[in-house]
Design brief:
By secondary structure, this protein is α+β, with helices and mostly antiparallel strands. It has helices at residues 7-10, 14-23, 63-75, 93-114, 147-153, and strands spanning 26-27, 43-46, 81-85, 126-131, 156-160. A 5-stranded mixed β-sheet has the order 1-2-5-3-4. The longest helix has 22 residues, at 93-114. It is globular and about 50 Å long.
Amino acid sequence: MPTFTPVEQVVDLTFIKKMSDEIGEVKAETGSSSQAGSSDTVVKANFDIVFDSGSSNLKPSEIAKLNEIRSLLIRASNTKIIVEGHTDNAGDSAKNIQLSKDRANSVWTWLKASDESRININDQRIISVDGYGSLNPIAGTKEAQSNEDKAKNRRVTIILK
């Protein structure tokens, strides 16, 4: 019968544990991204970047969170990045897809501009910047969402691979 080395002896989880302690919302996942072929996900983080309903403009109140993300991306410089935008279920589905893409692009554009060196956060690291509309709610359902659920679903998720 074959024997297997415990995962803790093969994979260094120090980075993931440290990020989890620092940020709180970061969690290690495998294979659950909207992005195809995600079995090598290192960190999937929902930083709860809040958007006003119908808007892709970054709010000044979100700058501290964006700075945390920038710091994480600089420290994890050997990873690739996926940025996923999401919306609540209000409004037209096609418009929500575009809005979620615009939200993802707003976050990615801000992150790139915040790295003055243009070395650590750049387009060479990006796998995709995309939007999924209301297809992947984290609160409520696709059909039924309270105002609180809607606020939670207006988000951007960052995935490191």
